[in-house]
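I am writing to request your help with a piece of structural work I have in hand. A protein sequence and the structure tokens that stand for its backbone fold form the material at issue. Please examine both parts with care and let me know of anything in them that strikes you as inconsistent. The record follows directly beneath this note.
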Amino acid sequence: MSGPGESVRGCASHRHLRRTIAEFVAHYHGERNHQGIGNELIQPLARADGHGPVRRRERIGGLLNYYCRAA
């Protein structure tokens, strides 16, 4: 039998799962190289000129990382 707190925890857990999946999909489509298309990104970003500091974008608490040059 579940109490009133179970429903709230279930909703919070569901929101966390949806947010985590959304972060993964954003990383998969926009920040991960794909061998099937010549190690390119599915949704390429504007490319920097190769100069400037390297930036790290962290997703899912650092589980996924994306490195790129600052524009």
About this structure: DSSP finds one helix and two strands in the chain. The CA atoms of residues 34 and 40 lie 6 Å apart. The first strand starts at residue 54 and ends at 59. The mean pLDDT is 78.
